[in-house]
Structures are given as C-alpha cells and as structure tokens.
Specification:
This protein has one domain. A hairpin with a 2-residue loop joins β2 (about 140) and β3. It has four helices and five strands, in the order βαβββαβαα. It has helices at about 100-110, 175-180, 190, 215-220; strands spanning about 80, 140, 145, 155, 185. The two termini are about 10 Å apart. It has about 220 residues and is largely without helices or strands. The longest helix is centred in the middle third of the chain and has 10 residues, at about 100-110. The radius of gyration is 17 Å and the shape is globular. The relative contact order is 0.21.
Length: about 220
C-alpha cells in the first residue's frame, strides 16, 4: 500500500435539514461525543448506545444476528467502487469486492443512503447526513465511489510491502497496529475509535487513534 494514502476517513456525523454540526471528539468517551445522538433523535428516548446496539433481540428479522456487535442499525445495501490496483500498481494487500466488517457498518450512516435515525423498528429519514459528510464523496454511476478515500477492507500486508510498518508497531493508545486491524484487514476502525474512548481516541480530532499533527496518524503505519 505505497504511494497512495491520504487519510480522508474523518468521522463527522451531522444530521439532516436542521443544523446538526458536530465538532471533533474530546477523547472522553461516547457521552457528548460526535456519536452521541441521545439529545437529538427523539426515538432514542435519551439513550446513547441504542442507535447502534441492542442488548436483546430487537425483533427486526432482516437484521437479526447478521452483523455481530448486537447490531441495531439498518445496514447499507448500496454497491461501492473500491480502491484497487487500477489506481495504484503498488497496492499489495488483497481488497474485498465490497466493504466488509466494521467498515460496512460505518458506511451504514456515512454512505449517504441510510438515515442516521434508521435503527431498530424505526424507519427514520428525518435525520440524514449532508453530502459533505458522506465518505464516498460522489457517485460513480449506480455505485458509491470509494476511490477517493483511504483503502478499506484491505489486507494489511506488511510482508509484501516494505513501506508498511510491522503489525507489532504501536498505534497510539490502542496497542499495536495488529490490535486495531480486523481479521488482518484495514477497516475504518483501524484509524478511528467510534466510541471516542479515553486513552484510545485523541481529543480534538475526528475520533482518531493517533493525532493529525505532523501526520502522525499516517506515519503510524507508513514508512515515509
């Protein structure tokens, strides 16, 4: 994965027609973070976690048990154009045909096709991301185009790419690179801590595990 990576997966959650601008995280936990909608979306009933997680069966057959993490939010069914070797001949890791794992769950708000308040048995549609907060950025025909973003759902292949640091290299307060990979793959959660957890997320950043200053987040993985 050399010569290509400009991090553009800044997690910014803003909602809908009404102004719902969200600042960077504070690194102090999910409460009050950019992913805390408890005071904004009435159907949450003041809860924070419920928009993504349900501790018990939520009675939505199409979603039950399919996504792990006690998942409670609608999941995108969009097709995506992935970053691949056509865009960088030096891309070494194998790329999934479509987003997988945590990245698909992130895109279930950030692809611009699923309303933020579409969770559990609530159809949502009142709170939607404005176009500038969508990860794909623009549409490529009928597909959401991810070629302008950091590659996701891609194997972190430090053995094949000498410009990648070993998986034992540190990743901020989150342990090592290997600790933040998902099944050996680079997903959105490798760079972002969605819960803005103390220690793991750096305050004043878009929920990043490592600071932006000096491009530290990029240099955590890339030898440059």
């Amino acid at each position: 994965m050399k010569k290509l990576l400009i991090l553009t997966l800044a997690v910014m959650m803003t909602v809908g027609i009404a102004s719902f601008a969200l600042a960077a995280g504070n690194g102090a936990g999910i409460s009050g973070s950019p992913h805390d909608f408890s005071g904004t979306i009435p159907t949450l009933g003041g809860e924070i976690c419920r928009i993504c997680h349900s501790p018990h069966d939520h009675h939505v057959a199409a979603q039950n048990y399919l996504n792990g993490l006690l998942w409670n939010h609608a999941v995108t069914s969009a097709s995506f154009t992935m970053y691949n070797n056509a865009w960088s001949a030096t891309l070494n890791g194998a790329v999934d045909a479509q987003p997988t794992g945590h990245s698909k769950l992130c895109l279930s708000c950030h692809d611009g096709t699923v309303a933020v308040d579409n969770f559990e048995n609530h159809a949502g549609g009142v709170f939607a991301l404005p176009t500038y907060a969508e990860i794909p950025g623009f549409a490529n025909g009928g597909a959401r185009d991810l070629r302008g973003t950091h590659p996701i759902s891609i194997v972190y292949d430090d053995a094949a790419d000498g410009w990648l640091k070993p998986v034992s290299a540190p990743m901020g307060g989150s342990g090592t690179i290997g600790d933040v990979l998902e099944g050996g793959k680079m997903q959105c959660s490798a760079c972002h801590d969605v819960h803005d957890a103390p220690i793991e997320a750096v305050g004043g950043t878009p929920l990043l595990r490592v600071d932006l200053a000096g491009s530290a987040i990029c240099l955590a993985c890339h030898v440059k």
